[in-house]
Design brief:
- This protein is of the alpha/beta class and 276 residues long.
- The chain folds into two domains: 2-80 and 200-270, Rossmann fold; 85-197, Hypothetical Protein, Haloacid Dehalogenase-like Hydrolase, Chain: A, domain 2 (2-Layer Sandwich).
- The chain is 34% helix and 26% strand.
- The chain contains ten helices and 14 strands.
- It has helices spanning 8-12, 21-32, 45-52, 85-97, 123-135, 161-171, 202-213, 228-233, 245-248, 262-270; strands at 2-6, 36-39, 61-63, 68-71, 76-80, 103-107, 113-117, 140-142, 151-160, 177-183, 190-197, 217-221, 236-240, 253-255.
- The strands form three sheets. A six-stranded mixed sheet has the order 8-7-6-9-11-10, sandwiched between helices. It has a five-stranded parallel sheet with strand order 2-1-12-13-14.
- β10 (177-183) and β11 form a beta hairpin.
- α2 packs parallel to α10.
Length: 276
């Protein structure tokens, strides 16, 4: 039995960060055919649920690049890999030294997600904050408001290439940390980065679901660096035409662009799900 796992942004979702009608219909056909599927995303629960609402994603969701797993049927998190206060402090210091504003993603005691941030220094950081609050449905608070009861999932930031790399180099001595980075879509001169627990990768999440749900084969779709860990544990891995070069080089096959329903068109042909 095969489990199909989708990255969201740049893969399953289109350029408007939503499921196209064609992709939504393809998912419905997969469900009717008994083909199991779920998502593995860098988004939080609130940010993931919006585009997925009404599209029958019943299996556990791999969130924040594998740091947490959400079980819709239980409405609870089944797994989490959280950062220690020492690790958080180390990353915050590294970001502050490079004059990069940190965005700290947390899991609160009541089960909701929140984001705490340092002073916003420029227009791009302001847009980043607005994205989290408006599109991703995450409440934003100043870093000084974060309580000791807040569990830290990851830290994110955006900045010049050299500054971002300096932060990443500065935290490599922490064995419990892993970082992901890429070019910012809004500004090609900037890079984004996510830093979280080293046990919390998409690949770890996929392996957990495979074992716990009893799947003997996994097929994955992704476009970014944070998808490579699940490429490594899957029998088949597919990269859309818009994927990073390093991801394409590791894929079983390169398929259509995410804004042209590349994933859905591939699935209709692969599983004989009706007219293309």
């Amino acid at each position: 039995m095969t489990l199909v796992v989708f990255d969201m942004d740049g893969t399953l979702l289109n350029g408007e960060s939503r499921l196209s009608d064609y992709t939504a219909e393809t998912l419905h056909r997969m469900q009717s055919a008994g083909i199991a599927y779920t998502i593995a995303t860098g988004r939080t629960l609130q940010a993931a649920l919006g585009p997925l609402e009404g599209h029958s994603f019943a299996l556990p969701h791999i969130l924040k690049n594998g740091v947490i797993i959400w079980c819709p049927d239980q409405e609870a998190y089944s797994h989490s890999h959280l950062l220690t206060r020492q690790e958080v402090s180390h990353v915050l210091t590294a970001m502050t030294d490079q004059e990069i504003t940190p965005f700290v993603f947390t899991l609160e005691s009541d089960g909701r997600h929140a984001v705490y941030h340092g002073p916003l220094k420029n227009e791009m950081e302001g847009k980043m904050a607005q994205l989290f609050e408006d599109e991703r449905k995450l409440p934003l608070e100043p870093l000084s408001a974060m309580s000791d009861s807040s569990s830290v999932i990851c830290l994110s930031a955006m900045g010049p290439d050299e500054s971002v790399q300096a932060v990443i180099d500065g935290v490599t001595s922490e064995p419990g940390l892993v970082s992901y980075t890429g070019t910012a879509i809004q500004n090609q001169q900037l890079r984004w980065m996510d830093i979280h627990h080293s046990n919390g990768s998409k690949g770890d999440g996929v392996t957990t679901l495979r074992q716990e749900l009893g799947f003997d084969k996994v097929m994955v779709f992704g476009d970014g660096e944070n998808d490579l860990s699940m490429f490594e544990v899957a029998e088949e891995s597919y990269a859309p035409a818009n994927a990073q070069a390093a991801v394409k080089s590791k894929a079983t096959e390169i398929i259509g662009h995410h804004d042209d329903d590349g994933v859905a068109r591939f699935l209709r042909e692969r599983f004989s799900l009706g007219p293309l």
